[in-house]
Amino acid sequence: MTAQKKRVLLIDDSRLALKKLQAILSQLNCDVIEAEDGKSGLLLAEKIEPDLIVLDVQMPEMDGLETLKALRKNPKFKDTPIVMLTVQSDAKTVAQALTGQIQDYILKDSDPQSIRERLRKYTS
Question: Phi first, then psi: what are they for 40, rounded to 5°?
Answer without folding.
Answer: -70, -30
